[in-house]
Amino acid sequence: MVMPFHDGLIVHTQSHDYPIVITEQSATEHSSMAKQIAPYISGRQVLIVTNDTIAPLYLKALEDELAEQFVVKVCVLPDGEQYKNQASIDQIYDALMTDHFNRDVTLIALGGGVIGDMTGFAAASFMRGVNFIQIPTTLLSQVDSSVGGKTGINHPQGKNMIGAFWQPQMVLADMSTLKTLPARELSAGVAEIIKYALIMDEAFLTWLEVDLPAMMALDLAVLGEAVKRCCQYKADVVAQDERESGVRALLNFGHTFGHVIETHEGYGNWLHGEAVAAGMMQAAELSQKIGWLSYDEVARIKHILTLANLPTTPPTIDVQTAINLMGHDKKVKHGQIRLILLTSIGSAVLTNDYDDKLLSEVLAQHCV
Predict the structure, then answer these.
(1) What 3-state DSSP class applies to 270?
(2) Share of the chain above pLDDT 70, in %
(3) Phi-psi map region of 174: left, alpha, beta (phi>0 left; psi -120 to 50 alpha)
(4) Among candidates 161, 103, 153, 105, which has minimal Cα distance to 325?
(5) Which pTM value belongs to this model?
(6) Which of 337, 319, 318 is nearest to 327 (CA)?
(7) Is residue 29 predicted with pLDDT exceeding 60?
(8) What is residue 5's predicted lDDT score, i.e. its pLDDT?
(9) Predicted pLDDT at 3
(10) Is 65 noted as a catalytic residue in this protein?
(11) pLDDT higher for 102 or 6?
(12) pLDDT tens sequence across 1-23
């Protein structure tokens, strides 16, 4: 009998330290979601924020069990990146205000990265800051967005342009929720896992090249190991640079290119991980043009993205349009677009020391 995966680690931040619990045991009575998060709920009031895809799967059990100890209300939002906006935040505020919730409330984000980002932003801004807990139910949110305190919403002109840094009280990553994850969403999460390997650890990429088929086949033990590794990488970076003034920016490898795709194509048409995958290829191609990566290294990156059923080319976007959209990126400084590029597999750098012509060449490669 294979024992269920159960592990955890601590994220150290200036405001407080908090645990990430990684498990696949929530189906058993002794370790239900409610029992694991209950010690981290402050006060008596709880608002669970979820969406209409996740609610039928996990909401009732969590709500019923928490209701034995707390006053529990629910806010169910529509599912999709296109709803990551102010209107959805207002729905969360409305739920909090209608039920006269106060500063002792704990918000619980039950869902993927969109729900986590919005719930965190609502928690950061309601009464100038209340507690919240992350229960990420997608692979992407488990390995990346639920950890580190980045919260926010999109603006029509740019992704994640409105938000706050606000750390959760704890993160519960239950691998068993991945059993209900659509294949496309699974691949989108693998994109972020590959990202960690490319920027931080070539040995991890080698591990992925061997174990990726098991991950894609929903081997929860292998997935749990990947989530643990990625969370450890991110926890180490967040401890050094909580508010992204330095090394934390490297975690956005592929994102500047990817956010162009998401914004241009309309939020939700490309999944975040899909856009990041294509963006990582563009960043790798630029790194090759500069002379940092070899042809074989770029081919290796393309191969593993293809194995994960991820796109390796962006949609057709006019070069000047892409550059204009990049100008809204949060890493722009003094009017210069700074990019995360690879000096080698496993080593990344944030730089504006590149030839603009080379960037235009990379963007033009995929224009008709």
Answers:
(1) strand
(2) 95
(3) beta
(4) 161
(5) 0.93
(6) 337
(7) no
(8) 56
(9) 41
(10) no
(11) 102
(12) 334 456 779 999 999 999 999 99
3-state DSSP: the chain helix, strand, coil percent, rounded to 5? 50, 20, 30
CA atoms within 13 A on the CB side of 189: 30
The residue annotated as part of the active site, out of 159, 248, 264, 338, is: 248
Does the annotation mark 264 as catalytic? no
Active-site pick, 185, 244, 262, 285? 244
Q: Is 262 designated active site?
A: no
234 annotated active-site = yes
Q: Return the closest-CA partner of residue 252 out of 332, 325, 182, 318.
A: 332
Bridge partner residues of 87 (DSSP): none
Question: One of 252, 274, 297, 300 is an active-site residue; which one?
Answer: 252
Confidence of residue 28 (pLDDT cuts 50, 70, 90): very low
User: For the segment 355-366, what is each residue's pLDDT rounded down to a tens digit?
Assistant: 999 999 999 987
DSSP H/E element including 73: strand 71-77
Place of tokens 């042809």: 295
Catalytic residue among 30, 100, 128, 357: 128
- Whether 328 is a known active-site residue: answer no
* 150 is an active site residue: yes
| Under 8 Å between Cβ of 171 and 221 | no
What whole-number distance in Å separates Cα of residue 335 and Cα of residue 263?
A: 20
Q: Phi, psi (5° rounding) for residue 167?
A: -80, 140
Any catalytic annotation for residue 259?
Answer: yes
* Per-residue pLDDT at 135 exceeds 50: yes
What token pair was written down for 349? 């750098």
Catalytic residue among 73, 272, 300, 302: 272
- Cβ-contact 243, 143 below 8 angstroms: no
Which residue among 84, 150, 229, 264 is the active-site one? Answer: 150
